[in-house]
Amino acid sequence: MRSICTLILGLCASTIAHAQLVNGSFEQDGQFSDTGWTGTCAQPGGGNEGAPGAGIWHATVMPGNFQGCYPAYLYQPIPGAMDGQLYLVGGWVRCNTEEPCLGGYLGIGRWNGSAIEVDDLNGVQGTDWTYVEIVDTAEIDDGEQAVVVLTAGSIGGPISPAPTQFDGIQLDLAMTVNTAMEERVRHFVDPTSQVLYLYAGSGTITEVSVFDLTGRQVTVKQRGPSRTVQVALNGLPTGAYLAQVSTTAGGRTIRFTIW
Predict the structure, then answer these.
(1) Do 55 and 117 fall within a single domain?
(2) Sign of torsion over alpha carbons 29, 30, 35, 36
(3) CA–CA separation, 231 vs 194, rounded Å?
(4) What's the pLDDT score for residue 242?
(5) Is the pTM of this model over 0.70?
(6) C-alpha angle 102/108/111, rounded to 5°?
(7) Do residues 234 and 127 share a domain?
(8) Are 85 and 152 in contact (CB under 8 A)?
(9) Cβ-based neighbour number of residue 78 at 10 Å
């Protein structure tokens, strides 16, 4: 990542502060996909009522049961994570139905090869899509791996709570605890239509410039201020790119992949 900074001056701070999950939108080639994610009890189901700006599909996660399989986690390893690194995890969460539902929660955990441990989670209950974020430190020992964790909770007895839906899961390195979460720009790449969707949580987007990893600008889009912007990626080869997003709240840089 440091080599990118020497090529694209001015993007260093934002680029170094970015980490990337695989398939945080739970879709590939226009269909539901759980690629990159592993369930401790079961793999997630899928539905086609995606969250705002996160594509068409979402993941459906069942809660665990103390009399069966628990805890029920859906997780993904964080490549290259080191002990003490501070991460910001965010994503859209909602209950499938109002009652009963234990809610949906996300956070950072650790995987020791046989079990996952999680210290803190943040989440919501309710049937409306809600964007949830948590800042937490990766606390891992030798032989352990930091993971992003999603869960619909666990319960005992014969009750069968409703599942929870997740979408648009993102991961960033948090440089400081007081990161301005509301000013972040969320994004999603639709591999079918070859469109980059951008959503500004605070302020409005005024311009988007896309660079490849050699520092060459490959496209730019200017428009009147808007909280949501779509950038056509037609004709660009597969690979990783950087989008420099200018907003009324300041500049942001995100990394994304064309599959």
Answers:
(1) yes
(2) positive
(3) 9
(4) 80
(5) no
(6) 105
(7) no
(8) no
(9) 24
